[in-house]
Design a protein that fits this description.
Blueprint: H1 3-17, H2 20-27, H3 33-52, H4 61-85, H5 88-95, H6 98-110, H7 116-133, H8 142-164, H9 171-193, H10 202-229, H11 232-238, H12 241-253, H13 260-280
């Protein structure tokens, strides 16, 4: 399969993750973020384990639980802390620095060269997310900003290490291992920190099925498949598709206004994601012919 096809398939994962806010606020009971994260990760992981019938070898358990912690337990917990202390737009903008963190981590852990075009694309994408989500009343809370930066760093580390540690199994099994490990780590925390869930309605169950089956099992299989095939910097930039989807859903389903500045932000994000794919490919972005020095004819 071509690299372009891999990029388009992988981009589906963050695009679907953009529905998480909409589904959580419209379909799920409020005030149970860690419990809902457990119900999203653990059943999805166990289902994939039952499908693949592939358990991690003993010498892989440490890596699997570390990746499960980074990609799910730590990331989701800090993300919820950030959401409680910051407006949603601020939290999403701060966590979008993940793309820059991945570039630095990939350099240190994988030896991936740092390309100026990739850095510029990441900074431009962060600016686009800010235009898309930040409002005039955006406020910065130190606890929320720290949590958002921690969430970005955790997901960045999980992405790079998932590329560095590639087990000899299919991406579906790798996703199953990490989802199960992340859910098991979150389970005792949810029992300690949060009260029991109220009786779930059919609407609640539908929301959980979407977040668990589609928003976790399917998307993380797609995501880890992409991590194994595409450069870490290129993969991390695809995560910026998530806020674009969230804003489009708010506009189409919730009747939220979409300002010209937000439309500009969405265009900037999409353009930066496109540029980053060329900048992060092996060999880097080709120099435009306009700036290439013509060889003298002999």
């Amino acid at each position: 399969m071509s690299r372009t096809s891999d990029i388009l398939i992988t981009a589906l994962a963050p695009a679907i993750w953009g529905s998480t806010y909409f589904v959580t606020t419209e379909f799920l009971p409020a005030g149970y973020p860690i419990t809902l994260a457990v119900l999203r990760a653990l059943p999805a992981g166990l289902l994939l384990l039952a499908v693949t019938r592939c358990l991690p070898p003993r010498d892989w358990l440490g890596r699997v639980f570390l990746l499960g912690a980074l990609n799910f337990a730590v990331f989701w917990t800090l993300l919820f802390v950030a959401a409680y202390h910051l407006p949603g737009g601020v939290a999403a903008t701060v966590t979008s620095v993940q793309a820059l963190i991945v570039i630095g981590m990939a350099r240190g852990w994988l030896g991936t060269p740092v390309r100026s075009a990739a850095v510029i694309a990441a900074i431009t994408g962060i600016t686009g997310v800010g235009l898309l989500l930040l409002g005039p009343g955006a406020a910065l809370d130190p606890v929320g900003v720290t949590a958002a930066l921690g969430a970005a760093a955790a997901m960045a580390a999980g992405t790079v290490l998932s590329r560095k540690w590639q087990p000899p199994v299919a991406a579906l099994s790798f996703a199953a291992w990490q989802l199960t490990a992340g859910g098991l780590i979150l389970l005792p925390l949810s029992l300690i920190v949060e009260p029991a869930l109220p009786p779930l309605t059919l609407t609640n169950i539908g929301g959980l099925l979407w977040l668990g089956l589609i928003g976790a099992a399917v998307t993380y299989w797609i995501w880890f498949r992409g991590v194994a095939r595409i450069e870490p910097g290129a993969v991390s930039m695809l995560g910026m598709m998530s806020p674009v989807t969230a804003v489009v859903l708010g506009w189409t389903w919730l009747g939220q206004a979409l300002s010209p500045l937000q439309i500009l932000g969405a265009i900037v994000v999409l353009a930066s994601v496109w540029v980053s794919q060329a900048a992060n490919r092996p060999g880097g972005m080709a120099m435009p012919r306009l700036f290439m020095r013509r060889r003298p004819s002999i």
